[in-house]
Design a protein that fits this description.
By secondary structure, the chain is an alpha+beta fold. The protein has helices at residues 28-38, 42-46; strands at residues 2-6, 20-24, 57-61, 64-65, 81-86. It has a five-stranded mixed sheet with strand order 2-1-5-3-4, with helices on one face.
């Protein structure tokens, strides 16, 4: 099952500069394992030492934040798009 992953500029050094890569997986966790197998070091930038996504990253499946779905257990289907985005904070 092919899933497109949108990689933010800050993580592209792990993917050889690629902004979109295609991986296989039935869940977000599967996709992250596939990312690590093909692009070593990338998983550590996405997952913290507790096994959860880093607080400063947001992951979306087809525009839906996985925090409001099943987090890393969120299911994927062929053709889904997963976007990894750095969290943005700010104020006046």
């Amino acid at each position: 099952m092919a899933v497109a992953i949108k990689i933010p500029p800050v993580l592209r050094k792990y993917t050889g500069g690629s902004h979109t890569i295609t991986v296989d997986g039935l869940t977000i966790a599967d996709v992250i394992r596939d990312l690590e197998a093909n692009w070593p070091g990338l998983k550590g930038q996405i997952i913290d030492e507790t096994g959860q996504t880093h607080r400063f990253l947001n992951i979306y499946r087809n525009g839906e934040d996985i925090r409001y779905l099943q987090r890393l257990s969120t299911e994927l289907k062929d053709g889904d798009v997963v976007a990894i985005l750095p969290a943005v904070a700010g104020g006046a």
